[in-house]
Fold this protein.
Amino acid sequence: MLVLSRKKNESIIINDDITIVVVEIRGDKVRLGVEAPREVPVHRKEVFDAIHREKQDSPAEQDNADPNTPPPEGKTG
């Protein structure tokens, strides 16, 4: 993990097209601004985790399962 120190209005650049700017520092909270191409998803970690949890639990995911794989024990298809 790269650890950097930044002050208000300072930024870091990731891969030439993503900029993270320190917008505000108030007490123990830091507000960050993210500039990234539209096709690059940007989420808070807890939102990212929820999205991936939802994808794992979705019926569409189960519909795409290999039909030759038996269902989990105690469940029938």
